[in-house]
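Design request, tokens follow.
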């Protein structure tokens, strides 16, 4: 386990988001990415909550943003170096964004995410 300061961890999440292909960023809609610095949910590195883009219909309006939560403590608990944290943050951000695009866990695993 490695300890990473909250501000540095948030920078890692921002860097992971900035590293996404530009076209994905343009397609993402009504989604907020947050960091949970506390213990978080057991066994989860990240969590997507919302209505995936593939399930939105013409009646989709007036809803709160989808939420992607990245769990600081859980990620640091499985890493030994800051480099591992950076990579795991990137993988977790991509995985949860995959859910925003309607990709399920099984397919994300097949794709290596």
């Amino acid at each position: 386990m490695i300890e990473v300061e909250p501000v540095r961890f948030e920078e890692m999440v921002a860097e992971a988001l900035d590293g996404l292909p530009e076209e994905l960023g343009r397609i993402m809609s009504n989604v907020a990415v947050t960091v949970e610095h506390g213990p978080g949910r057991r066994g989860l590195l990240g969590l997507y909550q919302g209505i995936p883009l593939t399930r939105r219909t013409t009646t989709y309006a007036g809803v709160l943003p989808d939420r992607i939560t990245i769990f600081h403590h859980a990620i640091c608990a499985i890493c030994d170096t800051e480099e591992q944290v950076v990579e795991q943050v990137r993988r977790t951000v991509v995985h949860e964004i995959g859910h925003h695009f309607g990709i399920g866990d099984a397919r994300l695993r097949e794709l290596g995410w």
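Comment from the thread starter after seeing the answer: thanks! The beta strands are 31-36, 46-49, 66-71.
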